[in-house]
């Protein structure tokens, strides 16, 4: 087990000026600067062990998350990492249910993003000291220990601790083959979101799409929702390039109201998208259920999750059959702990629908690909054992990570380095610190700020 | 119409050490220090007009909300208040949908609490310059102008702008009488939450209950959920004092899971509570629907809302008949603008159930009573016209406000001062600023910090 007393918590406001190139732009987030609140836990362990945690943000507001991380610091400082992970459920509860802080959450928005970063900063050194990548740590863990990391508060009406253990036990069959013959040999299938950001002009879209085809990509997602005529033109353009055999998905990023979503997507149905993502507010469970029902006859599923703020929302989306594809996010939810509960609920509910609620996570941003790959590999090996799933991929900002993702033939290859792939390069952090890093100093000077 | 360019925004971290006396304590918030992020907008108007806004917090974390208010400042600074309230829907949308900031919300948690404070700081001077208390400003406003303050995004599937106007037009009948013969003469009925905080020992509870009876209170709420035997003893004690004719309500502050809520409340059913409040997670619409269904045969309703984070959640609670009593909160929701939408949705849905979804707001904290009284009076006069409603009352911290609430015979009397009752006394703010105000300096020194 990991050990080392946390002697210091520092948190950095790291921003990348992605808005300059239109990368990451969609119908609701028109000028994101992909950013992160980056947490470093220092310990007094003899090996100099550190814990790195991260939460993804879009630029402005990163300083608010940084402030929330500092508010959580007293729950971490001077604790031994062994005690933290030894009672991970208790630690999760402590972070997310602080009697004063929970008023400004609870388990949602800023404080939950901050908690996710802190929790990840505890998972990472555990895997590191065990000498395993996180996915392997989880895969090798006995079911009882694994579920002891989960806070079942508010979900026992659909999943108890005992049921969670039973799911994990039943999934032992074929585990070794799934690791060796599938993950290590072929990796985890991915789709690309790099070609069709809303801010990309048609020429860029064409060029990126053509390059992606050369790189063996077979599944493509396009941002929609701002202007119907533009959507039709862009979808036609991509569909012409990828042909009828390859897969297209659409992402509206919450742009529509419920009736509008149905109407708009119906007009794009000719492009046969596999799913329409975030058609409306991520808080609207019943709204998504209505959209799902209306689009089912067209063969279009609803995908949602990147802004669903906790396990209680996912519980209801599953109960109401409001989605077809479930998209977890490693930082929006409370790190590994809460994601585990969602993966297990999805498994529990899979028999209720013919489509089995495939988990197809949200990735991209800063570090999301690095983190979520661990969770989805664990899901395939130890929970779902299902091959109908795929992971998002976005091809930027990986160079700032010490152990960036490895993509081969449009698949994520299992990380081999011990840890949770959360560590950023020191120089990257230093240069992109907002507002005093070199990159921002230059930009802000140029803007006359 | 109001005018004055916003020349400065300042925001204060104001905290009251209420945890020292166990005031405000419940099953989930055991040691709250009632606090506020207090916003002051200065303008260049000739009359020196200022805008005061407030959002309620529980101590730690107030600094995070302060940070979020500062992040919103660029949307307010150098704007004319006339332009802001002249396109209030647009301003609401701008504050809540900033393309970078919305990632850490959106419309929930820290950023939404911050937006509420800023929005209130724009409503207050509008009412002030019109020379009216806010409730009167709203009551006198023509329906078209009033609905132009509401962002209907994500709720058009249940309430359109036209329907909202129609509701307001239909409620014109009898308005004058409701103002003069009811509100001005008798005020708005209230219930007290001051007697039975969880941290109060039985002797305190008895004494406060006895005083409240003398002060004409007829409706009492008790905190429950931490320990069943304690709950039974305390409920018995209060019931014995108030007798069978007066009303008892229970508040669990989200302590239970769904099955536990049903089981626990069933064991308290002998005390015949009118409602059980926040039985489980405020995010759990379907869970509350299940609890509502299970408790209906016992004659116990579910009340919820103080931590429901936006209109989309209320829309679904109404759709799913998940509540009987709807509890708006003036700061959790996006100020007057978003509260209007919830009041109108409740009206729209009232015909769907025999009990008509009475709105019984959450008050207490710092300033909630001062603010919400305006909304509920508007609701009675211009929307619901219903007399089956009541407002919470908590009897502390009013002395820090320039225009504190006036309670007469257990009723809120309509405020007469122009504005939104949001202004705090300068000296109170100064003394309670955290951590450098005199009160905190002394306390922190005594604690050795």
Automatic annotation (TrEMBL), chains A, B:
The keyword Cell division does not apply. InterPro entries: Enolase-like_C_sf (IPR036849), Enolase-like_N (IPR029017), Enolase_C-like (IPR029065), L-fuconate_dehydratase (IPR034610), Mandelate_racemase_C (IPR013342), Mandelate_racemase_N_dom (IPR013341), RHMD-like (IPR046945). This is L-fuconate dehydratase. Its EC number is 4.2.1.68. It comes from the Eukaryota. It catalyses: L-fuconate = 2-dehydro-3-deoxy-L-fuconate + H2O. Residues 202-298 form the Mandelate racemase/muconate lactonizing enzyme C-terminal domain. Pfam families: MR_MLE_C, MR_MLE_N. CDD domains: rTSbeta_L-fuconate_dehydratase. Keywords: Lyase, Magnesium, Metal-binding. SMART domains: MR_MLE. It is an enzyme of class 4 (lyase). It comes from Odocoileus virginianus (White-tailed deer). Its cofactor is Mg(2+).
């Amino acid at each position: 087990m990991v050990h080392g007393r946390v002697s210091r918590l520092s948190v950095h406001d790291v921003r990348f000026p992605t808005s300059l190139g239109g990368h990451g732009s969609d119908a609701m987030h028109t000028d994101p600067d992909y950013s992160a609140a980056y947490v470093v836990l220092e310990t007094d362990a003899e090996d100099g062990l550190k814990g790195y945690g991260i939460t993804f943000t879009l630029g402005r507001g990163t300083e608010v998350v940084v402030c929330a991380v500092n508010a959580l610091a007293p729950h971490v400082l001077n604790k031994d990492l062994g005690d933290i992970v030894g009672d991970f459920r208790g630690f999760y509860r402590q972070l997310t249910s602080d009697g004063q802080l929970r008023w400004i959450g609870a388990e949602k928005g800023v404080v939950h993003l901050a908690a996710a970063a802190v929790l990840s900063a505890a998972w990472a050194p555990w895997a590191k000291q065990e000498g395993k990548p996180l996915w392997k740590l989880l895969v090798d863990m006995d079911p009882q220990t694994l579920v002891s990391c989960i806070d079942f508060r508010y979900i026992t009406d659909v999943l108890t601790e005992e049921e969670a253990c039973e799911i994990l036990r039943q999934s032992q069959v074929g585990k070794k083959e799934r690791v060796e013959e599938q993950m290590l040999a072929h990796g985890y299938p991915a789709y690309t979101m790099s070609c069709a950001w809303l801010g990309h002009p048609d020429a860029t879209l064409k060029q990126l799409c053509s390059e992606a085809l050369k790189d063996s990509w077979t599944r493509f997602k396009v941002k929609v929702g701002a202007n119907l005529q533009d959507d039709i033109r862009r979808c036609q353009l991509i569909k012409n390039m990828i042909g009828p055999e390859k897969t297209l998905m659409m992402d509206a990023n919450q742009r529509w109201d419920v009736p509008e979503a149905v109407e708009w997507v119906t007009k794009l149905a000719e492009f046969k998208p596999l799913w329409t993502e975030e058609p409306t507010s991520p808080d609207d469970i019943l709204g998504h259920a209505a959209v799902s029902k209306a689009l089912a006859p067209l063969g279009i599923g609803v995908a949602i999750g990147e802004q669903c703020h906790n396990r209680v929302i996912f519980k209801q989306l599953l109960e109401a059959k409001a989605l077809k594809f479930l998209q977890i996010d490693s930082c929006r939810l409370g790190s590994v702990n809460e994601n585990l509960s969602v993966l297990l609920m999805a498994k529990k509910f899979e028999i209720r629908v013919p489509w089995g609620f495939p988990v197809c996570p949200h990735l991209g941003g800063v570090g999301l690909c690095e983190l979520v790959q661990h969770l989805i590999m664990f899901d395939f090996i130890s929970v779902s054992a299902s091959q109908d799933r795929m992971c998002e991929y976005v091809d930027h900002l990986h160079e700032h990570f010490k152990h960036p993702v490895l993509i081969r033939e449009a698949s994520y290859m299992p990380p081999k380095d011990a840890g949770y792939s959360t560590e950023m390069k020191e120089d990257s952090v230093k240069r992109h610190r907002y507002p005093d890093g070199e990159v921002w100093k230059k930009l802000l000077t140029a803007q006359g700020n």
